[in-house]
Structures are given as structure tokens and as C-alpha cells.
Amino acid sequence: MNRTPHHWALACGLALVLTVTACNGDPTEVDPVDNAGPVTLRLGTADDDAKPGGLAILQFVEQVRTLSDGKLLIYPVWEAAAGAQQWDQVVARMLKDKKVDLAMIPSRTWDTEGVTSLRALNAPFLVTSDALADKIVGTAELSDELLAGLDKAGATGLAMMPEGLRHPFGFGRALVSPKAFAGQGIRTAKSDLGDATIRAFGGKPDDAVGDLYGAGVRSGTLTGAETGFVLSDSLPTAGIAAANVTFTTKVNTLVANSEVLGGLTPDNQRILQAAATATREWVVAHRVPESAHAAAYCNRGGKIVNATAVELRAFDQAVRPLYVELEQDPKTKAMIDRIRTLKQSVRVPPTGIAVLC
To answer: Is the CB of residue 80 less than 8 Å from the CB of residue 114?
Structure first.
């Protein structure tokens, strides 16, 4: 649902055009008054302003306003998908159709829109720590290559913003093995690769939203969800999270419609890019650790457990066919290999691991 931004306000001015008449009564031309107002752009998101992606948008809005001295202004369009299923895809298509000029869209979303360059980032059990995600989005060579494929969807990537690790949350029982998923409805955001991952375990992916989500949990047709501790306060009921089963890390992409971006002045293009980079750095610097989000989840009545080593190996075995498919694309295979190599050098601090409860 579109709503008027309430964090930022614009001052509006009125211009008075004067007609000057010479002494002989003939009209005399005068230089036109420059009444051009600020350039304004609409930024769509499925989130509200309290979600991690929303907070990043607010920071981006302020960065753009500051860097442009108020001459370039961003208006967020909160909850732009209006409670629809495939909510992130709705926003991506709004961007393509120029219903919004910019958007904040999870990287997982783009594989349904013909973009393959980001699939390595969302490969199951590959990016399993905030530290690794931060390293990837902050490495220009990697992030540029990951975002390069967005042109297929009419978009240009400005930056990537890490959000949080994604785990299975069970309603009634822990989802600590592929067997626990078999035949079960699992609520997950729409993504071709994400859906394929749930199916690899025998589960049934479902992107139910709103009342359908809660009703599915109450009726038992949805027995789990794929989400993160950072968003666990929005679960219909407290569940049992498997902390060491980390499907992937949610990373948001801040993007612009390519035609809209190309129509801006070079100065405004540079401002958007600089603001996006500054926002990414702000997000990384202000990230709340996984352990803190997990502790808050426990305080709300949730439970956290770990899968055994045998169960973890079963998960890895289940997704091997997905990797065979992914690695048929040479660019995706090369990116997966680079992320694996980078992963070996990244140290995960104790605060990056959820404590059981």
C-alpha cells in the first residue's frame, strides 16, 4: 500500500512571474526566473520503515538529500506490494514498468525475473555467516559481478545490503533434517532457487502472506518457515529454530530502473551511487549481531536447537543436485568457487553464532 513518507518533508515554494511594461507601453522581455524544484524519485519496497531494509532506505534517503544539498530527493513507497504473494517480485516488476524509479529488493528475488548472476550468492549452505556476507558486499569486484546481470530485468545495481542469516523455524517440531521437511508446507519468500532448496528436502514451499500465513500455521498446513532471527518477531507463533542450519544470508539489492538512471544528469547519477555506497557501509557498521537477535527470539518464547553432524551431512547431500544444476553455468560456478575460497579466510566472531535456548 502506498503511503506518504512521514520521516522526511519537502518545503514547497510559489513562484510569481512578473510582466514588466516599458514606458512606451510595449511589453519588455525579462530573464526567466529559475523556479526548478528538486528532482524527486520514488523508491519501492515490500518492507515497512521498521524492517532492516526499511532502515537502510531511510539512511539512503538522508544520504541523497545531504549529498545533493536537497536538490535530489527520494520518496519511499512503503509496502508497495500491498500484501500480495510474490511480494518482492511485484516490486521488481513495478521497477521495470517505471511505476517506481528505484527499489530495495532481496537478491534471491531476481532469479524469477531472468537474472542468473546472483544465484551463487543464494546457493544453499554457502554464505552462512554475517561476516562472509559483509565481505562479499564490500568487495567491489565481487559485488559488481553479482549485480551485473540485473540489466536483463531493466535494472542497474547500486549496492548490496546484508540483512541476516536464514534458518528453518519449525512450528511444533524442529526442522533439523531433510526427513523433518518431507511433505511439510514451509513458508518461504518466492525464489526459484529457494523453492528448489525446500523441495530438495521433500518440503512444499509456500509464500503465503497475511491472514493466509497465520491460518496455515493454525491449521497445520504450514509447519515451518524459512526466515531469520532478525525478522522472527513477525512469526505467527514462537517456534523452534535450527541455528546451525543456515540456508543462506538474505542480502538486499538497492537498484534503479536503468532508463530512469540514464536520464539523470551525471552529477545526480554520481550522488545516487555515492549515497548507495555510504548506505551499505552504514548497514554493515550498524548490524546487530546474530547472537543478539537470537537472544531476543528466546526472550519472546522461542526455542533454539542445533542439528547433529549426521543431520547436517544429510542436508548437504540433499542439495548436491542443485549444485550440479547451478554449476552448469560457468559464471555461476566460478562465483561459487570464489565465495568458497573467500569463506575459508573469514573468521566468524562468537557474536555471529546464536546461543541455544
So the answer is: no
Q: What is the CA radius of gyration of the chain?
A: 23
Task: Give the residue carrying C-alpha cell 546484508.
Answer: 162
pTM: 0.89
Q: Is the dihedral of CA 276, 278, 284, 288 positive or negative?
A: negative
Query: CATH number of the domain at 20-32+42-352, out of 3.40.50.150, 3.40.190.170, 3.40.50.300, 3.30.565.10?
Result: 3.40.190.170
pLDDT in tens, the chain (357 residues): 333 333 333 333 323 232 333 333 443 344 444 457 899 999 999 999 999 999 999 999 999 999 999 999 999 999 999 889 999 999 999 999 999 999 999 999 999 999 999 999 999 999 999 999 999 999 999 999 999 999 999 999 999 999 999 999 999 999 999 999 999 999 999 999 999 999 999 999 999 999 999 999 999 999 999 999 999 999 999 999 999 999 999 999 999 999 999 999 999 999 999 999 999 999 999 999 999 999 999 999 999 999 999 999 999 999 999 999 999 999 999 999 999 999 999 999 999 999 999
Start-end of H helices in the chain:
52-67, 87-96, 130-138, 140-147, 178-181, 192-200, 211-219, 258-262, 266-285, 290-299, 309-326, 330-345
Tell how far CA 154 is from the center of its chain. Answer: 18
Q: Domain limits of the chain?
A: 20-32+42-352
User: Cβ(47)–Cβ(105) under 8 Å?
Assistant: no
